[in-house]
Structure formats: C-alpha cells, structure tokens
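look at this fold:
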Amino acid sequence: TVNTYDYECTKKCKLTSHGDQITAALTKRAISNEHLAAFIAKTCRNFTDILDDMGRTALHLSASVGRHKIADWLLNSGANSAFKDRESGHTAMHRALYYGFISVAIVLQKHGAILDTPDDDFINPLQLCCSHKVKSNKHNSGYEIIVWGKNKNYNLGIGNVEDRETPEYLDFFRKNKLMIDKVSISFYHSIFLTSTGELYCTGHGRGGRLGNGLENTVVVPQKVTWPKSKNDEKIIDISAGKYHTLILTNHNNIYACGENPHGQLGIKSATESQLVFKKVDDYFGKNAYRIIAQDYHSLVISSEKIHVWGLNIGQFGMKSEIEILKTPKELPLNAENKKTGIKLVDSNNAAIVCYTQSNFLYIFNNFKMKSYKNPLMETFQCIAITDGEISSKREDVIKSARPLKLLVFTEAKNIYIWYEDIQQFVRCVFSHRNLQIERVMWCNNHVIVQFLGHLYHGTITNKLTNSAQSSTPISEYQETYMKKEFCTTNRTKIDLKRIKNLTNVTSFTCDGDGFAALVENTRRCLKTPNLLLENYNFQNIFLEASEEDNIHDFTFFVQSKPFPVHKFIIFCRSKFLQKLIENSENNELELSFQGLNSTIFELILRFVYVNQLVSQKDVEKMAKKSNSDESTIIKNLKNIFKHFEMSELVESMGSLCESDTVLPYPSFAREMFPELHDLVIKLHDNKEIIAHKCILVSRLEYFNMMFMGSWAERKTVNLTSISIEYMAPIIDYVYTNDVEKIRKQKFSENYLYHMIVICDQFLLTELKNIFELFISEKINIKNVAEILEFAFEYNCELLKDVCMQFISINLAKLLEYKTLEYLDYPILEKLDKFYRDFFNLHDYRTITPCATAIDDDNLIEFVKDFTVDLNRKCDENKKEKTPKTKSNKISRLLLNKLNYEKEAMGLIKNLSIDTERKEQVKKVLYNDDVISPEDITWIKVSDMKEKNDPKHKLFLSGLNSNEILKHESKHENSFTNLNIYLNKESPIKCDEITTPPPETPSRSSICLGDFTPQKLKLSQKQRKRMASVSENVVVKEKEIDPIMIQTNTSNPWKNNDSVANLLKSEPIQILNNRKDEFPDFLNKTNLPQKTKLSKSLPTKSQLSQSPSTSTSHTLKPNTAANHHTSNVNGNGNHNKNFTKILEDELKQKQYYDKIKSKSLILTQIEEKAIEELKQFYNVDNVFDENIKIERYRVQSDNFLNFAIWQYQ
C-alpha cells in the first residue's frame, strides 16, 4: 500500500518523468480503475500533486478521460481541485465539462471545486458546456425571464415586496408556460411582451401607467389589452418610463398610457392620467423599430429619423425657450446621415446620443448638439449614456450637475468611456486581458457586462483625476478629426465579478435597482417522442376465445362449429346479434341461414371484434375453397351482411381493398349495459368498481393472466392497496382509449408518479407511456434529477430520454443549482454517455491513448503486489498540503480546543444536583450553628438570590462536580486542611495531628482542577532537592501536648468558624508555598519551640465531602508526609534514584502536552467559580485579614493536579 511501500522519492517529489508516466497511463482505456490507481500511487509518492511536462496533474487527466472513481480517490488523498495547468490555465472542472464527463464534475463539486474559476482566457468551467450550441426549435421559441434586485414597488412581479438578492425565475410565466420576447423595467412598474404578442404589466398603477384602466397595485404580472387598429397589428417594442408606458406596433403606431405632467404621452387630448393605452397624435414616421420612455420625455427611432416629445430640459439640443413638445418632433440631423440611416440611439433624462451608419456621433445635451465624425476610427456596436447636467426651473424635475459619460463598445471588442469634462475617450481595460464581450450597459455608475452568456458586474476603478481634466473649451462645431479625441495618457480599469445563477443570457435590462435578464428557453430543443398508440380493438380475445375459458358468456354454432363470444362486445357492435342472444333461452344458439357458413360468420365476428373490412384476399381464399366464382362469393356476402345489418361491410363489398383494412374502433363506456357487469374490483376504503371481465382481460395483461389461465370462475378481484382515484382513470381508459380526456384532467405531479407505478404493476405499457409524456411536460431545473432517478427505478424509457435531453441542454444551470449532486454514479455514467452522444463529442473532444504509455501487461505486472482503496475517504485530521505558517498552527490548536470543549461540554451537561442534594447544600451553607452571627455581617449569602439565578445554578453545579471528582482522584492528596486550624481557638499540639489516609487513585475523564496549563521548568538543583525530601517528618524539639482537633468540611467553599475570632487568639499566616517553604505558623506564641510538621491542606476528597457529615483527623509526629513537605533542617531521610526522576519528568511532560490546548469555555468555568467564591467570602469588603482566591499550582514530581483553593 501507499503507507508500506518503500518509495524511491518523497512526498515533495517534483520529477517530471513521474508526472509523464502517470498522465500517459491515464489515457489508457482497457485498464481497470483499481489497477490504474495502484500504478499512479506506486509510481510516485507525490502522486496527488506531481506535474507532467505541461503542468497537468493526475486529477486533470482523470477528469479528461471520465474516470470519476480515480478522481474521487485522488481528492480523498489530498489532490488540489483548484490547481491550473500550464497548457491553458484549466482546472480539473474545466476539463471535466469540456470533455463532457458530468460524473467527474459532480465528484469535483462535492469536494468543493469552484465553478467560477477563470482560465487564462477568463472563461469559467460553466462556459465550456455545450448548451450554448443548441438552437431553439419552432415549438419552443421565446425566452425565459429571470429577475432580481430591489422590489419595493412590486416591479419584479414576484407576488410580494421582498427584494431578491440572487437571480431567480419569474414563476408566473414559468407556471403558465409563457415565453418572453421583450421586457422593460422601471422604478415603479415593469412590462413584458410574450412570444405570442401578449402584453403583461406589474407594479404600482398610479396615474394609469399599467394601462389596465385602474390605478391599483398589481403584485404579479397581469394581462393588459390595447386598441388594435387592424387585426394583424402586433407589438414589436415596449418601453417603461418612470411615470408612463409606450408600445410600438408593426403598423408604425405608438400607444401610450400613464401620467402626463410633462407632455411625455404625446397625446393632445390626454388628461393628467391616461388609464388605458391611447394612440400618440401626429406621428407619421415609417419603419419605426424602437421606442424609449424616460422620466420627462419620449422618443421613437426609425431607420432614418428620431422623433421626440415631452419636457425640454436640454436633452433635445433645442433652445431653452421651447419648454414642452406636446407632439412628436424630429431631431435635427445632417441630410447625409438621414440617407445612410441611424444605427444606435440611447437616452437618459439629461441627454440623447445618436450614432449613424456613416460613423457620425451626435450628442444632444445642455440645449446644444455636438457632432463627432468617426471619433475612434472604430465602428461602434453599442452605446450607453449616464449622468449629465440637468437644470430646470420646474420643481418636479430632479436637478443634476454631474458631467455626462458615454460608454462605447466597438466591433473590435474594445470599451471606451467619453467624459464630458475632458472631452475625450478613455480606453477601458480589464484586470485579466482584453475580453471579447458581447454587450455592456451602465448601472449606477457601474457597468453590466455580458460575456459568453454570463453577466458580470463591473466596478470602474482608476478614474481620471482633476489634474487630467482639460480646461480648454472645444467648439461644438469644430471638425472632430482636428481634435485629440482619444486620451493616450490615462486608462480606466474594470474589475468584473460574475453574477451567479445566470447562464445562456441573451439580453438584459435594469433601472439601477431592479434587474431582468432573458435567458435561453430550458426546453428550446427538447425532442419529445411521438406517442404511438396501439390499435384499439379486441383481436386478442377474439383469437384466444375457446369453449374451455371462463371469459366468454355465449356461444354461436354455425355448421356445428362453435364460436365463443362475449355479450358486452356483441351488444355494443351488432343490434341483430344482440336480439338473437336476448331471445335465446340459454347461452347457446345454432345459426342456420341461407348462404351462411362458418367462414362468413367468422368474417362477421372479425368485423365485430377488430373492425376489419373484407379484402380481395378474403374473397379469393373463399372462392378457392368452395370452387366458386368470385362474383358469386361477393353477391352471397352482400346478402348475408344485409341480413345481419352490417352496413359498413355491405358498402365495402362495392370496392374491395387489396390489403387488409382496419377502421378506427369505436370506444365503449363502463356505464353501458350495466346488466352485463360480471366483475367487481374491491379497492381501498371499501370502494368498488364494477366492470366487464372481457374488456379488462382483452386490454390489461394483468387481468388476462389472472383469468385466462384459471379454471375457476372469479367474480371479484381484491386490490385494496390501490385507491379508487387511481384505479378509476385506468379502467375508464381501458374502455374509451381517450388520451385527451386524461390530459384535460390536469393531474398533479405526485398523482402521475403514482399512476406510473400502478401502470408498471399492471403491465400497462401504453398507458404508462402516456403518463410519462405528461410528466415530461412538467420537467424543470429543480425536479429533473428526481424525475430521472424515478425513471431509472421504474424503467421509464421515454421519461429517461427526455430528462437526459433536458440535462444536456441545461447542464451549466443544473451544476450551479447543485441539482445533480444526489444522483447515483451508475445513473451519472449513463448520463455521460448520453451527453457525449447528444453533442457528438466523440468526434472532436476526446483524449486518445498516449503512445509512450506503459503496456497493459507490464502495468498489471507492476502493480500485482500493490493495492489501493478507491473507497477511502478523507481523514478528518489529515494535514492540508499548504505551506507551514503560523496560521496553520493556530488552526490546529483551535481544532484541539474545540475537541476538548466538545468533550467538556458533554460532561458538564450531565452534571446535575437532585432536590435532596440542593436542600442539604442550602442547609449547610446557611446553618446558624456553623456560622457565627458576627460573620453574617460580612459574608454575602448566595441564597438571597432568586432561585432561577444562573449564578446560583452554576454554584450548585460546581458542588456536584466536586462530589463526582471525590471518587475520581488521580493521585494521593495530603494537603493540610485549613479547617483544622480555623475552627479551633486553643493551641495545636503536633503529636495529635495526623494526615488522612490516602484514597485509592482512579482515572478521571475530566478534572476541573486540571484546566490551567502551566508549563514549569525545573532546574537541576530543584530536582535534586525534591528527590531528597523525606517522606517522614521527624520532630526533634520539645513535644507538644496532643489535642484532638475536630474538623467539619461540610462546606468546601468557606471556613466553619469565624476567621476573625481565630486570628485574635491565634495569629496564623498561610503562605503560598510555591517554593517548597515550610509554613511557619507554628513558630508563633503558642508554640514555644520549632516543630517539624506536615502541612495538611484540604484535599479534593475532603472538599467534596457531603455537607451533612464531618470527619476528625489526628496529626501525629513521625507520620508519613506527602511530597510537598520540606525539611526545616534541610536533611531528608529518603533519596530517589536518577531513573525515578526521569520517569517523573516524562510524566510531567506528557501532562503538559495534554493540557496546553485547554478550551476557552473551561477557563471561563474556572473564572466563574473564582468570582463566586470572592462574592461568597466578601473579599473586596474585608480589611482585617487578607483573603486571596486564585489558581495555585503545586510543583511535584508525581502529583499532577495543579489547581487548589488556598487562603492567604
């Protein structure tokens, strides 16, 4: 394996030869994934990142050849999905989509591959999909609409006032299957033109701007009517202004509606509000193809002229004396330009810009007109204008003083911005390279760029400074070629950021805050197979009928030959035979008519069951059998048919057909002849359906196998697992064979799924195909993966084909929506094959086997002793292959902290105190017998807080944790219990003091005393001194009378007697014994001689004792002391060897490594406990003694519990 193999290289191997061998082997097609993965792993230790001579990794080639299992294994092994090759800057995602392997793209996406990563040509992986090569068919013409942005005026038409941050489909048109040809969006409303020529509006209708005759607000698109002058009149362009709406028809008629305070409607008789569309007066132009509606004016563009009307605020280039143009007026252009024609026009509130076929540029602004002849020596392809000075005396006009800016996009795919303040064009460049963009538009001083079907938001940076502005005025009539119109010293940079969820964009529009884009129809080239319905007749039951079956219910005899028949079919098809059967006393009847024989009667029954006419072949066959003339046979047949009242057969005898002719069979109904019902189908909820057995057996294979092979006669069928709402349509279709009747019922999608399952159960292939066709009409971006999975599960071939077509056409959009991530890999493999066949990628996008690759036999021989696990997943603790930086170390430390935090929180949540325990704690804490009255004046009692106080709950949880830790002590503790001294006022005698017996150490999963990481370094002198400490304390001075000291450790957080009274009679100094100093509180007045005494602070076990119990300990001389005791004389009677010292140091080091990454929440628990203790002992308000509560670490070579509570 990788971990056991002895490689000749390391993980940092960069040999190009290794990369060449791996990438060459990946081009082989006959090698299994297991053998190929083993070869990759055995060739180089750095197999995930090794590069070949073109900078490609194994992941690049795995994506190129469609080996998704190897790609998944490489990614789990640490391969970088974002790495770009040196060939074209492609990532693995680029290659997977370029070569058409969807399965590899899904694997990469699951591992976090980015779909927006651009290559060297600024092309992202989604733009390499083949969907843009698909052309729409006639049945699926038009575009779908996507909207996003601000929606405070309901102008997006989504049904609410909420904004949309990301582009999404407009559900109204999708649900109604309406395609859009044009859209115009404004601040207050929007209008849509469908591919069928219908007009829809949405938004605020104040002033009648919606044209629906009302001023109400419309939250979803509503159809609007307009007055047609002729029946063939159609809308060819639409435009929505801030206050009004314009539409242009193919008859050069303009219709307007909305508010008219500035004359922008162009209607002389219009009032302030025009609620419905009305024709604009006095416009007689020809070949008009575009209209523009702005806030204060309107204009219409034809092939040679521009007409404007509305408020004149400088944008018409006319004198300021002309305030309002109430009817359309032509803008002044040169006669030469009128002949050559107008190419491009754009307008905002401040200006109008026109570019002609003769390369003249006209700018109408500030009551003037400026003309430029071929200003850039490049042909313009698109122009857009923004800003501009607006000055007016009217109060309802928004003023502006910003200079005009003109955005120009040329046929050479260059972008320029013309600045009014410098009178020059400035070249725009992108951060990557000169892109071959398709369209550009202003949007709030930014730009929206269309590039390969995607939209990008462009931020303009490096704008011109004031120092670069020109102060020399240029005459507006001066010849343009005499001026320096192109700025060579400055450039404007555009930073592009892709707008997500937008692919296959054809056009877009915006009003600054709201956006709308028209995208290719998702069903634009979907080929739905034609549904071929089988001939509806009963030929099978006619041919299979016999006297032994239990399906027929009547028998005719002709010339002693039996003919089993079915009454229901006979009654529906022949009234003559019906009468014969009704007059019969039993279920048998002998027919004897002149000229009737068994062959002729068989032809009659064939017509009844199959609706097949008599052909020339039938006559020839009868003539040959009876040795008669054909004319005699025909004459006899006519007579018999007349007698049996078969008019259609009689007519067919006049001109016999050479081949068999089958006429459409008439449909039946389940309600016909209810007296002949002979089968009851029992369904769910005790529902029943009564039917005719012969019809079900003939049409449904399920019933055919049930009844035709059974000798027993059955009149009931139990299908209690099926509801009647599903079974009734099936039975009705069996009778009627009417597909349109099922379609008109408009079943839901879930209902259709259930119907397919039932049809698959009853082997109704034809009906199943019908429901598959209905479901295929409901396929969209969100549900196509679920439908495809369903189709594979129930073997729906028609539905499979439609789903895979839909995925192939809309692959980029589906990948961005992550719709295909949950498909199984066998389905994805079949989808790969379909996708490559659908676009013929085998012809021009395929990787051929490399000639230098290792032979198949040699490769298998090379890896026979090497195995890899292709199903191995990423190790969560695996280090990422990134440079070792400080941030990575911090991240690993944080990861450890999180792990400790999760473990600690899990334990802390389990800490609880029962009701009895709480009452005991409360009783001990506030027992008047334990706490003296004078102590109550300075001790802050915690039970004065409310019962639900979180601090109080935390305090009780701390007590309970100590109770738990009493049984989980890791090491022996023998600290001196302060309560021994603090609870007595009499002198202490050392011979009666003893240490508590050691408890059995146990391993604890969590220790609240281990939360403070302190990495202490011991010097050699300290280690020797610790090794020489004696375990037994020898008292060499005068003996002291032993005194039994009663201790009460009911409350581990406080003393059981007044500390103040104790200090009055017995001065005691408790030192912080950090340097192995022996406490000298026995050297005071009550102890005349120095005594060697073992310090006995309270242990964790003592601190965690039950509050209701008390223990007494006697401290005697010569008792065993713990390792914290130091000899006053400096002489120890116990020496440790060097090996023991090393073992202790090793244990300390291991423990330091364990606690150095303690979680923050554990530190917070400690801080909370210290805060509670300080509040309980009223530390800040006590001045006659020094009470210090802090974390304390005891230096020891064998006891590693660092934190204790100590008073000082």
Summary: Residues 16-134+827-864 form a domain with the Serine Threonine Protein Phosphatase 5, Tetratricopeptide repeat fold (CATH 1.25.40.20).
